[in-house]
Design goal:
Blueprint lengths: L5 H15 L5 H16 L1 E10 L2 E9 H6 L12 E3 L5 H8 L3 E3 L16 H6 L6 E7 L5 E12 L2 E2 L4 H38 L5 H21 L4 H16 L10 H4 L7 H8 L1 H8 L6 H12 L33 H16 L10 H10 L7 H9 L1 H10 L2
Antiparallel strand pairs: 1-2, 1-6, 2-3, 4-5, 5-6, 6-7
Helix pairs in contact: 1-6, 2-6, 2-8, 7-8, 7-13, 7-15, 7-16, 8-12, 11-12, 12-13, 13-14
Bound molecules: ligand C2E, succinic acid (2 copies) and fe (iii) ion (2 copies).
């Protein structure tokens, strides 16, 4: 990589740009952009901040050294701090000036610079940030949408400093990446608007609930698929699709009457039977199956209330007639894996939340319930995957409130 010629690297950037324009999910896209930017300079770590309400919000982090030390998953992905767009921080300064900035050692900043280095991440994680290359993410209309930081470039595992070529290459790449990022943000906002429409009908399905279920689902899937030795490429591609599909698990509730959806207190058996139809209505919304995303979203909507032991709903549908009738519950691996994962993510979140018909549960009782339903309501391997990344799950719960 290091001995590649500049022209070759520019060629790489064009190929990667073509590639990243196919990624839909914003987090998958940030993951890929950061990975590629780090590759140009063989950098140990990096992060991306996106502009939200005139602040920079810390949106994505990668760190090879920390990830090697802690195999349980990257909970720093879900840290939630924000910084002002002003001269007081490195990232804020770059967002304000819209110019790339190279720093050789952040612990030896001169008196002439207005910014200070925020040591809180290093302190929290026992990491030593030395060299930082900070690049503004600017769209073609000269709008600043965020900042990317590439940290600690290495040569044969020695940490070195960034040179001018690094700065130029990464800046060029960032200008391409910014366009893709802006597009992915628009896609996400459109989907969130659709979810908000459903939410206006069902006060339980808040944006935060939906965000949490999406994030839990991809992290459980990641852990499950790594154990199954699926390839990294396959996992990344599926995570791209899964987050959004999981967020849409209950969109079928838009077909349920207000009287039932907004009922205060317990549902009668008849009302609950009608409520169960939300799985089928949801599946029908994606029945075109025009893409893999639609297919997986449909599978999740239909099957997220099936149970591993076969006692869930709607079961195997009779598709011979125009009117669906519920059949025997699907069992074990008859239930698609994405639905088995969302089933756990959804119930974990529902138990924590207060509903008109129940109080919120304590963390201890939620975890006890999940353990006791391992092999009954839930796929045991999915439960194991969930517990093996519980630190990440907690970080997600604290981020989306
Ligand atoms: P939800 O409130 O988001 O709950 C999702 C799933 O979490 C439930 O699916 C169930 O598996 C689990 N869950 C929620 N609360 C409890 C609980 O207190 N104990 C246990 N063991 N599990 C719990 P389920 O039962 O198929 O319900 C689907 C949806 O139907 C619920 O979504 C909610 O919107 C509605 N619903 C269910 N029962 C009632 C009720 O008695 N009153 C009202 N108003 N709505 C209900
Ligand atoms: C990621 O989500 O891409 C980071 C991998 C992990 O879950 O630890
Ligand atoms: C900053 O830009 O000051 C924050 C840098 C970091 O914590 O990585
Ligand atoms: Fe549901
Ligand atoms: Fe839900």
């Amino acid at each position: 990589m290091e001995i590649k010629l500049l022209g070759e690297k520019v060629g790489d950037i064009l190929a990667i740009t073509e590639d990243i324009n196919h990624i839909r999910d914003i987090d998958s896209l940030l993951d890929r952009v950061l990975l590629e930017a780090r590759k140009f300079t063989n950098a140990d770590a990096g992060s991306i901040y996106l502009v939200k309400n005139n602040y920079l919000s810390f949106d994505y982090v990668q760190n090879d050294t920390l990830m090697k030390a802690d195999q349980s998953g990257n909970h720093f992905l879900y840290s939630k701090f924000k910084i002002k767009i002003d001269e007081n921080s490195i990232a804020g300064y770059v967002a304000k000036t819209k110019l790339p900035l190279v720093i050789n050692d952040v612990y030896k900043l001169g008196n002439e610079v207005p910014y200070v280095f925020n040591q809180s991440f290093d302190k929290q994680s026992n990491y030593r940030t030395i060299a930082i290359l900070t690049i503004p993410l600017i769209t073609s209309r000269d709008k600043i949408i965020g900042v990317m930081q590439i940290i600690n470039p290495k040569k044969k595992s020695e940490i070195i400093t960034f040179n001018n070529t690094d700065k130029q290459l990464v800046t060029y790449f960032a200008s391409q990446a910014a366009v893709a990022i802006e597009r992915a943000i628009m896609t996400r906002d459109t989907i969130l608007r659709m979810i908000r429409m459903a939410e206006m009908r069902d006060p339980k399905e808040t944006g935060a609930h939906v965000n949490r279920v999406g994030a839990y689902a991809i992290e459980i899937y990641n852990s499950w698929a790594v154990k199954k030795k699926h390839t990294i490429d396959e996992i990344k591609k599926k995570k791209d699709i899964l987050r959004i599909a999981a967020m849409l698990h209950d969109v079928g509730k838009i077909g349920i009457s207000d009287l039932i959806l907004r009922k205060n207190g317990k549902l009668t058996e008849g009302e609950f039977n009608e409520m169960k139809m939300h799985t089928i209505y949801g599946m029908e919304l994606f029945s075109e199956k025009s893409s893999e995303s639609d297919e997986i979203a449909g599978e999740i909507a239909l099957n997220h209330h099936e149970k591993w032991d076969g006692t869930g709903y709607p079961g195997i549908l009779n598709t011979n007639s125009d009117i669906y009738s519920f059949g025997r519950g699907k069992k074990g691996e008859e239930i698609p894996i994405y639905a088995r994962i969302v089933a756990l993510a959804d119930v974990y979140d529902a138990l924590f939340s207060k509903r008109s018909y129940k109080d919120s549960w304590s963390e201890a009782s939620v975890l006890e319930y999940i353990k006791s339903e391992r092999n009954k309501q839930f796929d045991p391997e999915v439960v194991d995957a969930f517990f093996s990344i519980y630190k990440v799950i907690t970080a997600i719960r604290e981020k989306y409130i």
